[in-house]
Specification:
The structure is a single chain. By secondary structure, this protein is an alpha/beta fold. A hairpin with a 4-residue loop joins strand 2 and strand 3. The longest helix is centred in the C-terminal third of the chain and has 20 residues. The structure holds pyridoxal-5'-phosphate.
Length: about 425
């Protein structure tokens, strides 16, 4: 290893904390020199085909010339300006676009820094709405197990209690209501029995419940589960019948990932509040939005204290809004539905052979998401270097080895990804 590379890694190991990691960890981290299209170039010269879209964001690939040009132009105008008392074209354009693209009742847009914060904002909106409606006792949230909504305290309180390690934070974390996750899978019907636990929990506690919060169709980081669109439709109906708001967390699913622009379209429903993040900026920088109906924003604004109580420093950052406007334009001008459909076919064909392996429990694909669920958790120390040696960037977690490639990936690179997953898993199966 070259001296400068060794120095970088030594300092990283000594000073830098990585996500969900220990300091001074013996797990490998790989220095990245640059990234282009669907390729991540490591400092040691190796190039990896990207199967992760950098945690599901980089839908147009890295270093996109149109994105780069738009950001450079905006940089010449201003990188940032505060949003209290000031406004700017990139934010207004983006808000208009989000209102146009999200289901029809969505009319008001609140920008924030990250997915987790947009969930906090959604939860605060729900509570302020009921306060303004003279029902301040509605403070709790109902959700389903295996969900993931982020790492801040409000978001953590509605994340799966086991995955979210609630016991560690039990004295601080708000106590919310949970029901078992749906067992009816995507493409299946939802029977009265399937929905009964949800209905019962909601009906028992409706006076206290401000909102139900769910990831529509795909439960991402909590288990990569794809559930019935009819279940989601019935959840929406039950919420409306019982005066409970519905928050849909589209942070991972938004902008085409499941084959629809937003996953709630599979169930043909619209929420009261929607959270959007991740691929909003094409993976260029962090930005999220919480979008809601005119009814909710007007009620909050007309209630006490007459304002919505949130306002982050970097709210509606102009560079991030420009990235989002450009990314959305690129997406809508591309044949994204066809691209996702052909990625879905490629994932199905390429990952299906994994189903024959003894260590594999299930293989499932939806849109540009391919999941191989194993019987046992992976050993990251073993599997990560094997995947890198196979020329791919794939980052498994728990019992899940999954692919969420950029939408611009071609058939051959997709084949490289699926073949690498199969080869690595079959080697581990035999050893
Ligand atoms: C569904 C969902 N909600 C919220 C979040 C949190 O977003 P962020 O990491 O930007 O805070 C994530 C991140 O993985 C997510 O998948």
């Amino acid at each position: 290893m070259k001296d400068d590379l060794k120095k970088l890694l030594d300092s990283d190991n000594k000073y830098v904390w990585h996500p969900y990691s220990a300091m001074d960890s013996d797990l490998p981290v790989y220095p990245v020199e640059s990234a282009h299209g669907v390729r991540i170039k490591l400092n040691d010269g190796r190039e990896l085909v990207d199967g992760m879209s950098s945690w599901w964001c980089t839908i147009h690939g890295y270093n996109h010339p149109v994105m780069n040009a738009a950001l450079t132009k905006q940089l010449d105008r201003m990188a940032h300006v505060m949003f209290g008392g000031l406004t700017h074209e990139p934010a207004v354009e983006l808000a208009e676009k989000l209102v146009e693209l999200t289901p029809e009742p969505m009319q008001s847009v609140f920008f924030s820094d990250s997915g987790s914060v947009s969930v906090e904002v959604a939860m605060k909106m729900a509570i302020q709405y009921w306060n303004a409606n003279n029902q301040p006792e509605k403070q709790k949230f109902l959700t389903i197990r295996y969900g993931y909504h982020g790492d801040t305290f409000g978001a953590m309180s509605v994340t799966d209690p086991v995955n979210g390690m609630h016991s560690l934070f039990s004295d601080t974390l708000a106590q919310q209501l949970f029901v078992d996750a749906p067992t009816c899978r995507f493409g299946e019907a939802c029977s009265d029995d399937n929905i009964a636990p949800f209905r019962q929990q909601l009906e028992t506690n409706q006076d206290q419940i401000a909102a139900v919060i769910l990831e529509p169709i795909v439960q991402g980081a909590g288990g990569m589960r794809f559930y019935s669109a009819e279940y989601l439709r019935r959840v929406s109906e039950i919420c409306s019948e019982h005066d409970v708001l519905l928050i849909l967390d589209e942070i991972a699913t938004g902008f085409g990932r499941t084959g629809k622009l937003f996953a709630c379209e599979h169930a043909d429903i619209s929420p009261d509040i929607m959270c959007i993040g991740k691929s909003l900026t094409g993976g260029y920088m962090t930005l999220a939005a919480t979008v809601t109906t005119e009814e909710i924003s007007r009620t909050i604004s007309n209630g006490n204290p007459g304002v919505f109580m949130h306002g982050p420093t970097f709210m509606a950052n102009p560079l991030a809004c420009t990235a989002a406007n450009t990314s959305i334009r690129l997406l809508l001008e591309s044949p994204w539905r066809q691209n996702i459909a052909s990625i879905e076919q490629g994932l199905l064909k390429g990952l299906q052979p994994c189903a024959q392996l003894n260590n594999v429990k299930d293989v499932r694909v939806l849109g540009a998401i391919g999941v191989v669920e194993l019987h046992q958790p992976v050993d990251m120390k073993t599997i990560q270097p094997m995947l890198v040696d196979a020329g791919v960037w794939v980052r498994p977690f728990g019992r899940l080895v999954y692919l969420m490639p950029p939408y611009i990936i071609n058939y051959s690179d997709l084949g490289t990804l699926t073949a690498a997953v199969y080869e690595v898993l079959s080697f581990l199966d035999n050893n």
